[in-house]
Design goal:
The protein is mostly helical and about 190 residues long. The chain contains 8 helices and 2 strands; from the N terminus they run H-H-E-E-H-H-H-H-H-H. It comes from Pandoraea eparura.
Length: about 190
């Protein structure tokens, strides 16, 4: 089947099929699309799964029957040749592709291995909690802010004696440099 026919099959544009192709959602046999395998990938990767190509068989309502209250109950219909057990399994699994036992075990072991690696990295100090870093940085900024805001009150009498703007600038430069060096010494003393 070519891309145009596949687009018509799913009631989408040819451009959409081209996007699916770019994303790797289509399987090709030469120049033609392998419909069965491509439909499996679409069901797996698309948010709503692969749209139904043929409408499900439903019986027409007769008379004035009450409508169901929940939307989910309205969607439960048996397809042609589908048993109640098959319908229940279809509803319970939704669009999720279930893994077989070996794949699920492999997935679980990979997850547990990555979790153990993260814990090891955290314990060895290679990884740190973002909240702790943000708290430490916030504390350091608070120290800098407090120290810089204390300069005018501490240095006002000394700055008042300056006679020229150049003299005032030199004194401010000296005071700010001293404050920053003091903060740097405090920070270096905290790291062990």
């Amino acid at each position: 089947m070519n891309q145009s026919e596949y687009a018509a099959r799913h009631s989408v544009s040819r451009k959409t099929v081209t996007k699916w192709k770019e994303r790797g959602w289509l399987v090709f046999d030469g120049d033609s699309i392998n419909v069965e395998e491509s439909d499996k990938l679409l069901k797996r990767y698309r948010r709503d799964g692969a749209p139904a190509v043929t409408p499900s068989v439903t019986q027409e309502r007769k008379g004035n029957k009450r409508k169901t209250v929940t939307q989910a109950a309205a969607e439960v219909t048996l397809g042609a040749g589908e048993s109640a057990d098959e319908a229940a399994e279809r509803i319970l699994t939704g669009n999720v592709q279930l893994l077989d036992f070996d794949e699920a075990r492999c997935f679980k072991e990979n997850y547990l291995g990555l979790k153990a690696q993260l814990e090891y990295d955290r314990d060895s100090g290679q990884v740190v909690d973002v909240a702790e870093v943000a708290k430490a940085v916030g504390n350091e900024y608070a120290k800098v802010r407090t120290r810089l805001l204390s300069i005018p009150a501490e240095q006002a009498p000394r700055l008042h004696r300056c006679k020229t703007p150049a003299e005032l600038q030199d004194m401010l430069q000296e005071v700010i440099t001293e404050a920053l060096e003091e903060l740097t010494r405090d920070g270096a003393g905290n790291q062990t």
